[in-house]
Structures are given as structure tokens and as C-alpha cells.
Amino acid sequence: MSRTILVYAESRDGKLRQVALETLGAAHILAGDGDSIRILLAGSNITEATTALTPYGTDTIYTIEHDDMENYTPDVYMAAVQAAIGEAQPDVVLFGHTAIGRDLAPLTAASMSAGQISDVTAIEVEDGETSFTRPLYAGKAFEKRVFQSGPWVVTIRPNNIPAAEPSPDGGSSNIVDIAYPAPLLRTIVKDVVRKTTGKIDLAEAKIVISGGRGVKSADGFKPLEELADLLGGAVGASRGACDAGYCDYALQIGQTGKVVTPEIYIACGISGAIQHLAGMSQSRVIIAINKDPEAPIFKVADYGIVGDLFDIVPLLTEEFRKV
Ligand code: FAD
Questions:
Q1: How far apart are alpha carbons 284 and 261 in whole angstroms?
Q2: Of these four, 42, 57, 164, 173, which has the most CB atoms within 10 Å of its CB?
Q3: Which atom of ligand 1 is nearest to the CA of 257?
Q4: Ligand 1 lined by 123 (C-beta under 6 Å)
Q5: pLDDT tens-digit series, residues 261-294
């Protein structure tokens, strides 16, 4: 029996987020012959994001655009999700495991009486059974879950599932505008004060250069920022560095900070406390720079450099500049 998979494509400031394409990638893994993939794009300014999605050759892109959607509130966005669900009648709804996805997914699952599997890092379809892998206990273990019945709601951890590729034939998608459902707004956002945490979103960055208490000051982050800029990465931090006032808490990675899974994570002057590992141990390649050869970070590192970060980081920057 054919199924309909609805993908919530997250955008920010009118631009499609990378996680939207990874969520679409997850839909491609799930979709069998005859299944239909549809996308919901909602926001206040989504023309560019709609154009960016069209080449992926999806059956339908539902768009819902309104000034009320400039800032996220669950009232507005949940109404949009429900309007799309009304149109698509999906069997599966996929979200990115982001702040917004983590908010909308359980509301969606409750509204559909669906089961939910969250924070999925891998999907396997074998002998007609689909299993979803997710980390447990701050990444110390993994479990594989399967749904016993439908509908399904799933959230996809950023940077784990390969992003969808545009259709080789140029692709085209049927775009269906859905009227803004104008829900009752119980709360509205009056103002958003953004903290600038760098040019690249930490949660989506492919390369993260993180500093710990070993950077010793706010100025100590400068060599890390230089290397991150050169490599097109983002700067992160341990709580030790945040608590010491060297950087903003928006950069904190770990159990009580952000979870990142970049392709390369470079930990500079970070001891490797369990709470920090909870936020980065799933990174594909971990490089640790620490002057203490006994630092626990070396136990999880793929490559370790024992030395002073103020010598090593500028050397790396110099070498990468030559490439
Ligand atoms: P330190 O442990 O002080 O390590 C500094 C390291 O820098 C040392 O290994 C040292 O050898 C090295 N170093 C010093 N100078 C240099 C140099 N010049 N060159 C190279 N290396 C150098 N922590 C997090 O990170 N994220 C969290 O989300 C988090 N949540 C927590 C939640 C709870 C409930 C609790 C109790 C703690 C939490 N922590 C968290 C704190 C955590 O336990 C550690 O205290 C913290 O991660 C330590 O930060 P650090 O590694 O930067 O500092």
C-alpha cells in the first residue's frame, strides 16, 4: 500500500536550512515504490526557499506564507502543520530535530494519535521493516526502534542523514499554496534579540572548532575564530569557557548546551568531561589539542595533539592557508 510522507522543511530568514534537505533525505530513504513525498514550507518570506526546493522533484510543495509567521510560535506553526496534514493526509511526518522540530513533532504526534521516534541518526529499511537508530544516555548507547503501527512522526538529528540531492533531470514540483489558517494567537513575539554566534549555525556546521578553559580569555578564542573562518566552520565552547566568561553561552556544547555532530570537531584546551562529550562525541572525526597527555578528551579523539593550543592552532591555520 502506498504511503504519503510529509516533510517539514525548516527555513530561517527566508532561506532553507540544511536540515530541511537532510529531512528530505530521510524521506527518500523511507519512500518505497509508489510512495509520495510532500513538503511543507511555512514562513513569512519563503519565495527563495520554495525556489531552492523545486529542483528536488518532490510530488508537492505546500506553501503557507503570512506576516504572522515571521517569528516562530507554536500556535501559528502548528496551525500550518495541521493545514498541510489536512491536505496531504500523511502516513509519516518528518521534522528536523531542531528547537522548532522538537516543539512541533510531539504536538503533531498528539494531534494525529501517532507514535513518535525522536533524534534519529540513521534509518534502515530491510525486509520490509524500517528501523530508526537514536542515541541514548548522552551518546553512550544506541537503540534501534521500529513502529508497531502508524501514523509515524520522526525527528532527524542534523548532520547525520545524507541530504537529498536535486533531481538529475532538473526536477519540478507541484506547488500548492495553502491559505494561512489564521489561528487564535495566544501569544505573540514582540521582539527577537539575536545573539551573534558566528556566521555559520553551530548545530549545522560541518566543522566545529571548540575552545575550553585552556583558551584562558576571550582574546584566546581569536586564533580559533581565525581557523574556523578559514575552514568555513563554526566556533563552539565548553561550559568551562562559558562559565569563565570567555564566550557567550550560546556557544556551549554538551549536556546542557548544544548537541553537534559535525564531520570534524577540533577540541582546543578542553579536558573532555562527560557532560561535554554528551554534546560532541557523535562527531565523525574528533581532533583534540591539549597540553596534558592524560586529558580524558584523548580517549574519544581520533587524532590527538599534545601541545599548547596557542602554538598548534596558528600552525594549523598557516598550513591550511597554503592549501
Ligand atoms: P577544564 O576541565 O578546566 O579543562 C581545561 C583543559 O585545557 C585541561 O585539560 C588543560 O590541560 C587544557 N589546557 C590548558 N591550557 C592549555 C593550552 N594552552 N593548550 C592546550 N590545552 C590547554 N560542560 C560542558 O562543556 N558542556 C555542558 O553542557 C556541561 N553541562 C554540565 C552539566 C552539569 C549538571 C554539570 C555538573 C557540569 C556540566 N559541564 C558541562 C561542566 C563539565 O563538568 C566540565 O566542568 C567542563 O566541561 C570543563 O570545561 P573545560 O574542559 O573547558 O575546562
A1: 7
A2: 42
A3: 28
A4: no
A5: 999 999 999 999 999 999 999 899 999 999 999 9
